[in-house]
């Protein structure tokens, strides 16, 4: 019993030591702590799959637009046709090009999960059936997966956002992109 009382008093004394009150009119000492720093802590946090998964979920966008190009890796979509979200059309992820759809030029992309994506984007990891064709319309949730180089005209390339219809694929592609970016930045520059 005496031993238990001794541990309790030592524990309380330790707690009281951290909360010093200055009664002499002098400012109380500032509590400081030592933070362990690791050389690549920021890079390690950026490579955490759970953090990347959370970022992908928070960055998801509703891809609703016209297919401009079909490639083996995915689709280039001109997204922003928000009137495709009307009930009879939302039964499938793809609609034929004969559907009547227009784009509102005044609509802006909101920076919140699930908002409609506006502008050109590349969509990968799409469902296998039905097959998408050029000028069809798509409505599907996409998760950010990096960037894609798109050449609408030969010798004129631009970088557009890349989305994946599958969350796991988006996480994998994002981790691969960050890994290659960090390895490029980690290489020492050649001497002059």
What order do the helices and strands come in, and which of them pair?
Layout: H1 2-18, H2 41-46, H3 49-58, E1 61-71, E2 74-79, E3 94-95, E4 115-116, E5 119-124, E6 137-153, E7 156-164, H4 167-186
Parallel strand pairs: 1-4, 5-7
Antiparallel strand pairs: 1-2, 1-6, 2-5, 3-6, 6-7
Helix pairs in contact: 3-4
Can you walk me through this structure?
The structure is a single chain. This protein has a domain at 52-180. It has a five-stranded mixed beta barrel with strand order 1-2-5-7-6. By secondary structure, the protein is of the alpha+beta class. 28% of the residues lie in helices and 28% in strands. Helix 3 crosses helix 4. The chain has helices spanning 2-18, 41-46, 49-58, 167-186; strands at residues 61-71, 74-79, 94-95, 115-116, 119-124, 137-153, 156-164. The chain starts with a helix and ends in a 6-residue tail after the last helix. Residues 3-45 have low confidence and may be disordered.
